[in-house]
Each structure stands twice: as C-alpha cells, then as structure tokens.
Design goal:
By secondary structure, the chain is an alpha/beta fold. It contains 14 helices and 13 strands. Bound molecules: nicotinamide-adenine-dinucleotide. Keywords: NAD, Nucleotide-binding, Oxidoreductase.
C-alpha cells in the first residue's frame, strides 16, 4: 500500500475545493530534501531517513520512529502530515520526519544507544534548532532524544538543546510533553462529544493502541467518567461491555504485560476491536487501520485519529457516506507538537515559563484550532469532511507563506 499516493489524492481534493492554482499546489507535492543513510551497527545495517518536506513557515519539525516496518513512503507521508499539522496549529514550523527500519523491542540498551547515536552522526548536518528539530514518535522516547542531542552537540561543538524536543527535564525538557498528545486529543474529543454527539450522557469509548498517545488518552477519558469498553496494543485487545477498570489496566500494562492478558474482560483481536459498537473510536496505533476492507463494518459514531494516517483515502469516503465523523490526525494529535514548540521556545530564550501558563496555552490553542476547523466544516454544511476543512486551512497558510517568499513551482 502506497501511503504517500493517498496524500497526493487528498491534496488534489483540497486544490479543487479551494480552486488553488497548479503552480501553487505543486509546491506541496514533493519534499524539499530526502536524506537517507544506512546505519552500520556491528555486522547489521539499518536503513534510516530524515525527510524535510517543507520549510515555508519555519524549520523542519517532526518525530523519529524506530520500527521494523519503517519505509521511505511512510517517513515521507509522516513528514507531509507534519507540514499540515504545524500550519494548522499556527506554530512557526515547516515539517519533517525521521525513521529507522529497526525493531527496538529486540535490541538491548547498548544497541539502542548505538542506533540513536549513529542516527545523529548520519544526519547532524541536516538538523539544528533553526534547520530541522526532531522529537519522539513510535518506539522512541526521551532517553533516545538524549543520546541524539549528546551526539549532535559533540559533532557541532556547542550546546543546542533546541535542536530536539521531548527531552528529559534535566536536558531542557518540559513536564507537559509526556502526555501532551493525549491532552490535546482529549480536548478535541470533548468538543466532538459536545458538537457532534450533542453532549450525549453515557459515552462509550474504544481505544486502539495503548502507548504514549493511547494510554494517556484512555486515562483522561476514564477520569471524566466516560465508559471505556475496549482497548488494545500490538498483541490484541480486551473488551468489557460494562466498562474496563482503566486504572487497574494501566497498572497491569505498566508491569510489562499485554492488555489482552488482563482477566476482567474478553480478549479480542485488533480487527474485532475496530468494528465494535461504540460512540467514539480512538485510533492511537499506526497507519492503514481502516481501509476499504473494514470501513463498511465500522460502527463508531465519531473516530478520533490520535495516530497519524490510520484511515486510508478510499475509506474516508465510505465513512463519510455512513455519516461517521472523523476528527483528523493533523488536528487531533497536534498537542504533542504544540508542547514541543513551547519546549523549543524555552530552550532558545532561556526563559522558563510556568506550567499552568503553558497548560492554559495548550488548552486555548486546541480549542481555537478545533473551532476554526469545525466552523469551516459547518460553513460547507456537511458537504466536506473535517479532514478536508483542516487541510484547506493548513494548505492556505503554507501557500501564503510561499507567496510572500516569492516561490512558485518550477514548470
Ligand atoms: P508508542 O510507541 O508509545 O505506542 C504505540 C502503541 O500502539 C503501543 O501500545 C503498541 O503496542 C500499539 N500498537 C502497535 N501496533 C499495533 C496494532 N497493529 N494494533 C494495535 N495497537 C498497536 O507510540 P505513540 O507515541 O503512542 O504513537 C502512536 C501513534 O500516535 C503514532 O501514529 C504516532 O505517530 C502518533 N503520534 C504520537 C505523538 C506523540 O507525541 N507520541 C504525537 C503525534 C502523533
């Protein structure tokens, strides 16, 4: 499956919707620079990428993924989504992404550190606080960011904590970052419950993916009294129609077990979980989860994309015809990069801002961004999706910046 080809189709839809000229939309059809390297660790070689997709609004920004299925198509798609996400979030970044085709679950600490440092060695000339700023993504974390920062600083010979975000506090990180993606996703989910489900009383929730994004999101929704009936991780799901005891499940998961081993519920597959009867389905794992094969069987009323790209282009249409509302990734999961922006701004200025102030700022930004997307969606009285509304706002801001820079695509 070619994920990037799907993105181009979504871009064409927006160009048609907003009558965007060919030479303008062409600026967004390809990345500025694809950097590739093979990381040699002992006798193993791991393909690695850093792709800078666009820099009209500012330096590149986007996470690094370590996963055995990472490919150039995936990294380029993730970089493309970062461009739109940063634009929609109204933060001064272009978009980029990185990845290593490597399974950290099979590596010991020594190899994990070696891969992280080799990544910095391979790409340090492409990175920097004013060039391109990485962060964690799937199967990477603050520890990995620390090794990359340390290696980068050794290479360039000076301190530059703003070259990476999602760092531990001691290296210039920010407390809010750990659950920021979920915090932002939670705020827009509440808006969707209010506007789309008309503040329905007993809201049922299903969550796919129980990592950084999914686990914190589940905790926040459960703490608000919503009924979480199923969650899953890579090994499968657990279902309890009466509602799961989320606190107990989190303790169970944090003890190193898989959620489908939890006893107070019925073990189900990830495929079954997606098709459960529910009000909200939160997708917080990987791409391509809802496709033409299963879209017709989806019963959720609202889908929240905490993951990037979990729904394929053709499935979007099927869901739209079924009147299932999708809160798109570039809006729903933007809390992470918004807090990364706070971290970067603090690193650059040396000023430390109070956590409450930043929490409120995140809250305000998410609600404003939801409002802009939802207003546009309503303006077109249901003839477009929330995704198309979000893409339209994001693309227009980037193209305005490109215009001010005097840039048009080569014919
Ligand atoms: P993570 O590595 O912390 O967690 C991933 C989770 O997904 C794990 O629980 C894993 O077991 C599960 N998983 C993997 N394959 C699965 C499958 N086939 N079915 C069900 N579950 C599966 O990663 P994360 O940071 O939570 O990222 C999840 C998604 O959210 C990704 O798409 C990522 O790009 C996106 N995202 C994350 C952030 C962030 O700040 N962490 C920000 C924006 C977007």
């Amino acid at each position: 499956m070619n994920i990037f080809a799907d993105n181009l189709k979504r871009l064409e839809d927006v160009a048609k919707l907003d009558n965007i000229k060919e030479e303008e939309i062409a600026l967004l059809r390809e990345p500025v620079k694809v950097n590739y390297s093979e990381l040699a660790i002992g006798d193993k070689k791991y393909p690695a990428w850093r792709i800078l997709y666009n820099r009209a609004l500012g330096p590149g920004k986007g996470g690094i993924r370590f996963h055995p299925d990472v490919s150039e198509d995936e990294v380029q798609s993730l970089a493309f989504w970062m461009v739109l996400k940063n634009s929609l979030a109204d933060i001064p970044y272009g978009g980029a992404k990185g990845g290593v085709k490597f399974n950290p679950k099979e590596a010991d600490d020594k190899e994990l550190e070696a891969v992280s440092r080799a990544y910095a060695d391979a790409f340090y000339q492409e990175l920097g606080q004013d060039k391109d700023v990485p962060a964690p993504d799937v199967y990477t974390n603050g520890r990995i960011m620390s090794w990359i920062l340390d290696e980068f600083e050794k290479k360039v010979g000076h301190h530059e904590p703003g070259m990476i975000t999602g760092k531990p506090l001691e290296l210039g990180g920010i407390a809010l970052r750990s659950d920021a993606t979920a915090a932002g996703g939670y705020l827009v989910t509440k808006e969707a419950i209010k506007e789309i489900l008309q503040d329905k009383k007993e809201v049922k929730i299903v969550v796919q993916g129980f990592g950084n994004a999914g686990l914190f999101m589940t905790e926040k929704l459960a703490a608000d009294g919503y009924k979480v009936i199923a969650v899953s991780d890579s090994r499968g799901g657990i279902y309890n129609e009466a509602g799961l005891d989320v606190a107990a499940l989190v303790t169970f998961k944090n003890s190193g077990k898989a959620v489908n081993e939890y006893s107070a519920g019925r073990a189900i597959t990830n495929a079954e979980l997606l098709e459960l009867e529910t009000d909200i389905l939160v997708l917080a794992a990987l791409e391509n989860q809802i496709t033409v094969e299963n879209a017709d069987n989806i019963k959720a009323k609202v889908i929240v994309e905490l993951a990037n790209g979990p729904i394929v282009y053709e499935a979007d249409k099927i869901l739209f015809n079924k009147k299932i509302v999708v809160v798109p990734d570039i809006l729903a999961n933007s809390g992470g990069v918004i807090v990364s922006y706070f971290e970067w701004a603090q690193n650059r200025t040396g000023q430390i801002l109070a956590e409450d102030y930043l929490k409120n700022l995140l809250h305000k930004k998410m609600i404003v961004n939801w409002g802009r997307v939802y207003d546009k969606y309503k303006e077109r009285s249901g003839s477009i999706t929330l995704r198309q509304a979000a893409y339209s706002i994001a693309v227009q801001r980037i193209l305005k910046a490109e215009k001010y820079r005097g840039r048009v695509a080569a014919k």
